[in-house]
Amino acid sequence: MSKRALAACLVATLATPAIADDFYKGRTISIIVGASPGGGHDAYARTLARYMPAHIPGKPSMIVQNMPSAGNMGTARALVTTQAKDGTVIAALNAGVLTQSVMQPELVNLDFRKFAWIGVITPAFSVCYGYGNAGPGSWDELMKRPQFIVGTTAKGSLSYTGSATLREIFNAPIKLIMGYPGSSESRLALERGELEGDCGEFTVIAPDWVSSGKAKLFVRFTRTRPANMPESARWINDFATTQEQRDTLDLLNVSNELGRPFVMAGDVSPELVGVIRKAFDETMTDAAYLAESERLSLPVNPINGPDSARVIDRMMAVSPAVVARARKIYD
Questions:
Q1: Has residue 2 been placed in a domain?
Q2: Structural domain includes residue 3
Q3: In what order do the strands lie in the sheet with 234-235?
Q4: What digits encode the pLDDT tens for the residues 91-118?
Q5: 105-113, long-range: CB within 8 Å, 24+ apart, which pairs?
Q6: Contact (CB, 8 A) for 85 and 217
Q7: Strand (E) positions, 51-159?
Q8: Range(s) of the domain holding residue 185
Q9: Does the residue 207 lie in any domain?
Q10: Core-most of 200, 222, 274, 304, by most CB within 10 Å?
Q11: Cα–Cα distance, 252 to 57 (Å, whole number)
Q12: Sign of the CA dihedral 229, 232, 236, 242?
């Protein structure tokens, strides 16, 4: 390399931090959420938006924009189509669309390896539960029922993935009602008696429903069980009787492993992605952020951006046979 070229590289290297530090001053960063206000995705995004700007050089403003869409797919697509790719837009995804992208690539048409992974606040810790007297209180009770009515937003959501997994892998008598805008609307439907239970994130269930036994948890989709989750929520893999079932569940459970993911468009400069990743990681250890998250019953069990991306790489490397089996939940 010539002395001139070496000098140019050195200047570029030294200039990069200054450019990144100055970029966000006076700007506004948008977090787009593919769900209606009042649900879990919205709560996590709004809490993050209150604390993360303090960790970004220039201390920009940060706002949350709700863009309800089928299974959150529209939010992911917006990142690669209509949204700015200058580092001012972050998406809070519904992780169910990640596994759907493997099972239905012709429908989703998104390669999440090409996104810039900022990080995950926590695994989803998804569960299924019966509600009140109408819903089942255990796995055995579920399997003996003629029907179990649950609601969901659309294919690709975590509630759909959990419900459909029970139906397709274990032949559970699930009847899915589609079209609820978000978890807050599903809660109202449960209280009105339209639904008999739900599948979704544990943190979204009203705490008093759990403590009173109104929400009867009977299965979970992560090996780890949080301390405040009832022991009645058994790990889904415990019910598998074949290796094929276990391999299929491992693929489907990626959406729970990456439950609260935040991403940016792959076109955003690596320098700015690095700035936002660093700010995200620092926010995950911010004492004030953690205190508010605890007050709001929003667990924080973070996974950084590079580790999140590696989970996506692992998901994309599964065998065609496993994909074919898992795909049945979307047919």
A1: no
A2: no
A3: 174-177, 148-151, 197-201, 126-131, 215-220, 234-235
A4: 999 888 898 899 889 888 999 999 999 9
A5: 107/330, 108/73, 108/156, 110/73, 110/76, 110/77, 110/80, 112/76, 112/263, 112/312, 113/309, 113/312, 113/313, 113/316
A6: no
A7: 61-66, 89-92, 116-120, 126-131, 148-151
A8: 126-254
A9: yes
A10: 200
A11: 38
A12: positive
User: Which tokens sit at 196?
Assistant: 């008999």
What CATH number should be reported for the domain holding residue 196?
3.40.190.10
Shared domain for 33 and 112, answered yes or no, is yes
Torsion angles phi and psi, residue 13, rounded to 5: -65, -45
Neighbours of 124 (CB within 10 A): 29
Closest CA to 84 of 302, 269, 237: 269
What are 184-226's pLDDT values in tens digits? 888 899 999 999 999 988 988 889 999 999 999 999 999 889 8
Helices (H), the chain: 3-23, 40-51, 73-80, 96-103, 105-108, 139-144, 158-170, 183-192, 207-212, 243-252, 254-257, 270-283, 287-295, 305-316, 320-327
Q: Is residue 324 one of the residues assigned to a domain?
A: no
Structural domain ending residue among the three candidates 209, 233, 254: 254
pTM as predicted: 0.76
Separation CA 78–CA 199 (nearest Å) = 27
Contact by Cβ (8 Å): 41, 64: no
Token pair in block for residue 269? 């400069």
Q: How many CB atoms lie within 10 A of CB 18?
A: 10
Token duo for residue 5? 């070229």
Mean pLDDT confidence for 131-139: 95
**Which pairs count as long-range contacts for 6-11, CB under 8 Å and 24+ apart, including other chains?**
none
